[in-house]
Structure formats: structure tokens, C-alpha cells
Amino acid sequence: MKTIVLTPSPWGPPVLRPRLQLTLLLAAAATLAGCASFSPDGGFSTVEQAARERLGKEVRWARAPGDQDGIDQRVSELLAKPLSADDAVQIALLNNRGLQASFQELGITEAEVVQAGRVPNPGFSFSRLRRGDEIELERGIHFNLARLIAMPMISAMEARRFEATRGMVTMTMLSVAADTRKAWVTALAAEETVRYMRQVKQAAEASAELARRMEQVGNFNRLQRAREQSFYADAALNLARAEQAQRATRERLTRLLGLWGAQTRFLLPDRLPDLPQDLVDRPDIERVALAQRLDVLGAKLEAEQTARNLGLTKTTRFINVLELGAVRNSSNEAPTQRGWEIGVELPLFDWGGARVARAEGVYMQAVHRAAEAAINARSEVREAYGAWRSAYDIARHHQDEIVPLRKQIAEENVLRYNGMLIGVFELLADARQQIASVNAAIEAKRDFWLAQADLDMALIGKPSLTPSAGPASAAGPGADAGH
Question: Given this model, what pLDDT does residue 5 score?
Fold first, then answer.
């Protein structure tokens, strides 16, 4: 620890030179301390700007108890109508308590930045020594001069760390927004799936009941009735699974929105948004991602900060302990002692090479991590872009080809049923297939909007590209293949 000891005595005749040096030192310290103060917004303006420019949303920091009242009022206004995706994102940005907790990291880090810019408090020492009838009094005021010398560099390091914290909090905010949008899409798709699974169950129940009656009158054998009953049992099971997925996805959305009590009875729209008419090609998507991804920018900032820290380590490698003191001792039996003392650690065994080697290793580690972040960003945005395009093509195929064909087949079969060319069971089986195709179209549309959210996140930060389990994967078209 680098410690400076200045011991000018407040008693006795003044010593001009030590007092002058002490005055200059204190003046410089006061100047440095005047620069260390809290910002008006605590660094929150960066987060607000990112939410406004990248999401078109507002974000608030509940720093005081009264701030939460305004947030609660705004949340109540948004919950008064069926919750759209944009409204869900807005509620999460205002009301997610985990996000609010991350905002506090700004205040914590800024307090550490301000603390690093404050002059350390002086210390006072007093000793009373006795040797026979001789009594010696020693008084001293201590200042950490090494800390004062390093304050500009330390303050700059802490300021860069504060910038990194702002980037991290901004990334957290954007991640919450992306997760909320995906949770909204999944929850809404699950509700649509439940509605269609109920229709499948109703059709299966009617078919099973009709088969039971026809068996009773001798028009159906036991095998035919068992097949219809088996389909009904499968339909009931698939509906139960879909309802469980609906509850789970809704609860996940509720957690992200930070809702509880009566707020959890929020309403969702009846259906997912329509697909875009067309997609715009983005050949420069990698360049855009590298220019604005926060994790890439944060890795570069970390490497730069580490490089500056390495410079500080090389500068102070030989200075480990530096003590400087002005001594003034008084005794009742001897003249007053005056003088100077200085103490420096001799670099006989430790020349600071280990500290420098460690700093260089940390710097190269930061450089490689920055390069890895750039490489991963390129790959992730390509993957997200490819998934987005494929999901759109699949959803379009369901919407423009499969569903219309199933509808046309159903209409033709109704005509044939009315003409007594096919029986009721063929008509019911065709209706089940049509419902299953509509349900598959819902899942395809859901996957597209999830891919859209992943692509948006891939352009601004690290996305979550793990495949999401469908809310009713067990109730998909494959369940009806054998009927």
C-alpha cells in the first residue's frame, strides 16, 4: 500500500516550507475532489436513448417510492385493453422488477466512480512516550499522497468501467424487451392452438358418439368404433397438453411483465398478427450488426480499458510503498526535533515483472474475446437472418397453399356429403384434417414472429437462438395422420 505521512505539528513555531507544500497539496486535492460528483441522471440517459431509438419505447427508473406510482398508473392504462406486442414490451420496460434491479447497478457503479474521484480522508496520529522523567509527544497528519498522484488514472479507469456498466444495463433492457415480445407471441399462439384443439376434440367426440350409436344398431363393427374412440382419446389428451402449454406460456409472459394479483387477468388479442406481404433482402446485415451490437462494442471497450490499465501497471511497477513525512517531535527535557523522513520499498526481490506479465495476459485475453465477439456476431446474425427467411417462407406456404387447399377439399366434401356420395365419418375426418392444417399454420406464423424477435436481437446484442418448443407440439398435424 502506498502511504504518505505528513506530520506538521499544529503547535510550536511555524515552518514555512512544509506549510507551503502542504497548502499546495491540499489545494490540488480540493481541485480533484471538486471534479468528483454525481451526474443528474445517474447515467440513465443512455438506457433511455437506446429504448427510444431502438425500440420506440420509454423506460423509467423507479429511484424513489413516488416513481413507482407513476409506473403503476401507466401499466394500468395499458392493461385496460387487449395486450398488443408493443404494449407488452412497454409494460415490461416499466414494470419488470429484475430490470429495475439492474438499473440500480448504474447507481452503484456511479457511486464507486465518485468515490474514486474523492480525496481520501486525512488521518491524525498522536503518541505519548515516556522515558524516566522525560515525556515525548508526537503528533502527525497523514495523507495518502500516492493515491492523490494516481487519482486521475484511477478516475479514468472507473469512468470507463461506468461506461461498460451502462452498456451492460442497456443490453439487459433490450434483452428483456426481446424476451417479452417472444413470450407474447408464444402465449398468443398457445391460446389459438387451444381453441383449435377444442374444435378437434368436439369433432372427435361427435364422431365417437356416432360410432357408438351405429354399433348399437349393427351398422358398425367393434374395430371401426374403437378407431373413432381412439381418435377421441388422443384429441382429449392433445387438448390437455395444449391447455398446459397455454398456462405455462401465459405465466412466463406474466413474470416478464411483472404483474401480480388482479393484473394477471390481462387480455390478449384473438389472433397473431398477419405475415408481412414481403420481406426486404438485407445483404449488409453483418456490417450493420458489427456497427451496433452492444456486446461487440463492449468487448472493444474492455480491451481498450485493459490496455490503459496495462500502461498504469508499467508506470507503477517499481513504486509499491512511498512514504514522505515532516517530523516535529517535542519533549519536556530536550529541544524540539525537526526533520524529514522518506521511505521507499527496495525492489530487491520483486521488480514488478509478475504484475506486468499478468496485465499483459489480461490484455491479450481481452483482445481475443473482442475478436471472438465479432466472429460470433457475424455467425449469429447470419443464423438469425436465415431462420427468419425460412420461417417466413414456411408460414407463407401454409397460409397461401396448404390452408386454401384444405378449405377447398372441405367444401368439395360437403357437396359430396349432401349428394350422399360420402358418409358422415369421411366428412368428420376431413374436418379434422382441415383444423390440423390451420393449427400448423398458426405454429408456422408463431415461428416467424419468434424468428423476427431473434433477428432484431441479433442486430443489437447476443440473441437467444435456441429453438423454442412449440406450445402444442404434441397436438400438431401428426396426431391426426392415422385418422
Answer: 39
* DSSP conformation class of 349: S
Residue 448 neighbours by CB under 8 Å, 6+ apart: 275, 388, 391, 392, 394, 395
3-state secondary structure 292-338: HCHHHHHHHHHHHHHHHHHHHHHHCCCCCCEEEEEEEEEECCCCCEE
Cα 256 to Cα 347: distance, rounded to the nearest angstrom: 56
CA 478 – CA 432 distance, rounded (Å): 12
Q: Where are the alpha helices (DSSP H) in 141-221?
A: 145-216
Find, among 61, 159, 152, the residue nearest to 112 by Cα: 159
Q: In the prediction, which pLDDT does 197 show?
A: 87
> Which pTM value belongs to this model?
0.72
Q: Which residues are within 8 A (CB) of 82 and not within 5 positions of it... i.e. 6 or more apart?
A: 267, 268, 269
Sequence-separated contacts (24+) of 231-236 with Cβ below 8 Å: 231/204, 231/207, 231/432, 231/480, 231/483, 232/201, 232/204, 232/205, 232/207, 232/208, 234/204, 234/479, 235/197, 235/200, 235/201, 235/203, 235/204, 235/205, 235/479, 236/201, 236/204
Task: Say if residues 45 and 58 touch (Cβ distance below 8 Å).
Answer: no
Q: For residue range 124-174, what is the model confidence (pLDDT) as tens digits? A: 778 888 877 788 887 777 767 666 777 777 777 777 788 878 888 888 999
Question: Is it the case that residue 65 has pLDDT exceeding 60?
Answer: yes
Cβ-contact 330, 12 below 8 angstroms:
yes
Q: Identify the pLDDT of residue 331.
A: 59
For residue 346, the tally of other CB atoms under 10 A from its CB is: 9
Cell of 395: 408460414
Rounded Cα distance, 55 and 57, in Å? 5
Residue whose cell numbers read 409472459:
253
Q: How far apart are CA 430 and CA 280, in angstroms?
A: 37
**Helix, strand, coil % (nearest 5) of the chain?**
70, 10, 25
